[in-house]
Each structure stands twice: as structure tokens, then as C-alpha cells.
Amino acid sequence: MTRCELCEQEGGIPVFRNDTLRVIRAEDADHPAFYRVIWNAHVAEWTDLAPADRSRIMQAVAKVETVLRERLKPTKVNLASLGNMVPHLHWHVIARFDWDGRWPAPVWAPLRERVPDAAARLGLPLAELDRHVAQALQGLTTD
User: What is the per-residue DSSP string for the chain?
Assistant: First the structure.
């Protein structure tokens, strides 16, 4: 195996971790409510996991999405599991707003315009949002 970025480092700002997975917030000034749910062990594909583990990671994705929807009221939540650049299983959970500089295009599209201080537009400090995400994940089982 070649070196894996997500095996060697957190992958962003740590929000939650248990024995099987972790959630980080990506440092993205244009999309401040951009989270990743990362499987701790190195696997490339969702189907590399046992069915119970597939359910576990999707439960985590759903919990993160629910917090974003309830706390931020985004225009849309984007979910993606690409892994082309980093072939380590992870899901992107991204709150999108009609005011963001790429809307309605994907977050990877060219930036149409820079939105100054996008995090301030969320109406909730990022540290508080992180706490809500972590709290929602506390009941996630690891067995």
C-alpha cells in the first residue's frame, strides 16, 4: 500500500472519534460546514466493510446531516464518497447554501465569487456546531 493521508493524519479538525470511525470538520473557508466521516481502518470502498459496519458509518453520516439541517437550515446537504484522490473510505457531509460562491454547482466546481467570512453567515459559531455534531454521535455504538 502506498502512503495514505487519512491513515497518517486526522484529515481536518477533530470533532468526534470512537474505535471505528471519526468525524472531522474540513478547513474550507468557502464551505465552513463541511464535515467528513472517516472510517479509521484503511479500506478503500464501502463494500469492503461488513454489513454491520456499513450501517454504522451511514448512521454517523445521517447524524451529521441531521445536525446540519436542524442547526443551520441549509438550502441543501451534499453527501459524497469519492476517494479518487484519497482512496480511504470517507463520506463528505456538506451544508450548502444558495449564497455560497459555487452554488448551485458542486463544491469542487470553479469558484464563481468569494463570499467574505462565510462562517459568520452560518448564524452559529463553528465550535458550537462541532459540539452539536459530537454530541449527536455520542450514542453511536462500536460493537
Answer: ----HHHHS-SSEEEEE-SSEEEEE---TTSSSEEEEEESS--SSGGGS-HHHHHHHHHHHHHHHHHHHHHH--SEEEEE---SSS-S-EEEEEEE-TTSTTTTS-TTSPPSS--TTGGGGGSS-HHHHHHHHHHHHTT----
Domain of residue 131, residue span: 5-137
pTM of the model: 0.94
Query: Do the beta carbons of residue 133 and residue 64 sit within 8 Å?
Result: yes
Instruction: Give pLDDT tens digits for 99-120.
Output: 999 999 999 999 999 999 999 9
- Assess if residue 62 is contained within a domain: yes
Grid cell, residue 1, equals 500500500
- How many domains would you assign to the chain? 1
Asked, for residue 142, whether it belongs to a domain, the answer is no
